Amino acid sequence: MTKRKSGGHPDLKMVNPNAAAIDIGSTMHMAAVNPDTDIMPVRAFGTFTQDLHDLADWFRSCGVTSVAMESTGVYWIPAFEILEANGFEVILVNARYAKNVPGRKTDVSDAGWLRQLHSYALLRGSFHPEAEIATLRAYMRQRERLTEYAAAHIQHMQKALMEMNLQLHHVVSDITGATGMLIIRAIVGGERDPEVLAAFRDVRCKSSMGTIKAALVGNDRPEHVFAC
């Protein structure tokens, strides 16, 4: 009985001969195209905007239609956006997927290997939303960060007031409300008279002027006022 050979791999079919790839770096991008389209199929490009446009022009001259890029951090974003604006189909690849594919030769560059995998449709692109969704997501993430920063600053203000024994947070529901902010701004501006500070009470505030006045008798120190 003839033994069946194991370990063989059928020939892969090239799905996308017009594929290109970029190994994204912080100061330089290594790009690769099909060796049949250029005598120098692997080239280095800078990261300035003009360099990225030159990269797009080179891809176009080589007949590239699809580009795979591998990157960490956010260095890929400008290249992705410029190439996409130039009409290329662009995918961002997780480096782990490319490294887990066997068969790489040691003399093949990262960009060349990435291009080869992309030409055989062996790479899966990371999720990238449509332009409008990406814009909205950027705004929402920035808003979330600002909200977090604001919460931390409010805590710092409240801690500084407590260190001066100005118990404003006990007599107003929100120190960043109308009454709280008027009083804090006055304190930062140099006002120390509790009666004057209590006069900033908003008519909607539930605490009386007498209660607010008592809460604003403290032991102020310059460094604590500065922290407000």
Write the layout of secondary structure elements.
Elements lengths: L18 E5 L4 E5 L9 E5 L2 H13 L4 E5 L5 H10 L3 E5 L1 H5 L10 H10 L11 H33 L4 H4 L6 H11 L5 H5 L10 H7 L6 H6 L1
Parallel strand pairs: 1-4, 4-5
Antiparallel strand pairs: 1-2, 2-3
Helix pairs in contact: 1-2
Protein name: Transposase
Organism: Paracoccus aurantius
InterPro entries: Transp_IS110-like_N, Transpos_IS110
Give a summary of the structure in a few sentences.
The protein has two domains: 19-128, Nucleotidyltransferase, domain 5 (2-Layer Sandwich); 149-227, no CATH class. It is built from ten helices and five strands; from the N terminus they run βββαβαβαααααααα.
Overview of this protein structure:
This protein is α/β, with parallel strands linked by helices and 228 residues long. The protein has 2 domains: 19-128, Nucleotidyltransferase, domain 5; 149-227, no CATH class. 46% of the residues lie in helices and 11% in strands. The protein has helices at 49-61, 76-85, 95-99, 110-119, 131-163, 168-171, 178-188, 194-198, 209-215, 222-227; strands spanning 19-23, 28-32, 42-46, 66-70, 89-93. The chain has a 5-stranded mixed beta sheet with strand order 3-2-1-4-5, sandwiched between helices. α2 (76-85) links the parallel β4 (66-70) and β5 (89-93). α1 (49-61) crosses α2. The model is unreliable at 1-9 (pLDDT under 50). InterPro entries: Transp_IS110-like_N, Transpos_IS110.
